[in-house]
Amino acid sequence: MPILDRVAADLPVTLKTASYALAENDTGTEIQFDSAAAVTADLPPVNLAPNGYNVILRNVGAGTLTVTPFGAETINGASSESLSGGDWVWIRNDGTEWKSVASNDFEIADGSITVAKLADAAKPYDFSFVAGYDQDMVREDIAVQNYGELVIARSLTIEGEVGYIDTPATGQAAIVDIEKNGASIYSSKPQFAATANTLTAGTLSTTSLASGDRLTFAVTQVGSTEPGEGVRFTLKCRLA
């Protein structure tokens, strides 16, 4: 059962077919609006509604439902909240302002945290590689060679890369590469410009990875005067 249905299961429900001004005794209820035309749900003044007053407003009609605070009062700092057909919002009075406690994407408190945003935050799936370190992680010259291998376990989308070189290359850039199944994922490879510690991003020609794909991290060019030492490279990916 969806979270809202569990929350609202024991709440009394009333149906409105036109605009409605909420009253004090509407707290702890669900009000459904069923109208083909645009309607409003007008909230009472915060100072006249009990602290903790809460109500679920659900639009079950085809018209737009606009939730409107009293006068210059706000909902989460906004002058109103608009609900399309099928949308709902859970409104609460915190004593000073109306708050949208939850809505279709389960916004919490001030609306800054949502299930959708939490899911997005869980999607990054990055891979890190190093080059130019000995077995004790002491910096040493990088060389033109492969430095890392792995097999992809799930479908991913490549978003870019970041990198840092402790001792910059001089004379020419140090260039790195990621190969997918033996072919570069770049049309223009990432590089550390001569004397630069930070990475200049490459241009991706491949952005999709599937379970079983093989990745190789390699240095393909080193500095001509100073090769460069201590490369850290992260391929930024996201769960597809």
Describe the secondary-structure layout.
Layout: H1 3-8, E1 13-16, E2 20-21, E3 29-33, E4 39-42, E5 54-59, E6 65-68, E7 81-83, E8 88-93, E9 98-103, H2 115-121, E10 127-131, E11 145-151, E12 156-167, E13 174-180, E14 183-184, E15 186-188, E16 191-192, E17 203-204, E18 208-209, E19 214-221, E20 229-239
Parallel strand pairs: 1-3, 2-4, 3-5, 4-6
Antiparallel strand pairs: 5-8, 6-7, 8-9, 10-20, 11-19, 12-18, 12-20, 13-14, 13-16, 13-19, 15-17
Task: Please give a handful of descriptors for the protein shown.
single chain, mainly beta, Jelly Rolls, five-stranded mixed β-sheet, elongated
What would your notes on this structure say?
The protein is mostly beta strands and 240 residues long. The chain folds into two domains: 3-121, Jelly Rolls, CATH 2.60.120; 127-239, Jelly Rolls (Sandwich), CATH 2.60.120. Helix content is 5%, strand content 42%. It has two helices and 20 strands. It has helices at residues 3-8, 115-121, and strands at residues 13-16, 20-21, 29-33, 39-42, 54-59, 65-68, 81-83, 88-93, 98-103, 127-131, 145-151, 156-167, 174-180, 183-184, 186-188, 191-192, 203-204, 208-209, 214-221, 229-239. The strands form five sheets. A five-stranded mixed sheet has the order 1-3-5-8-9, with no helix packed on it. The model is unreliable at 1-8 and 107-113 (pLDDT under 50).
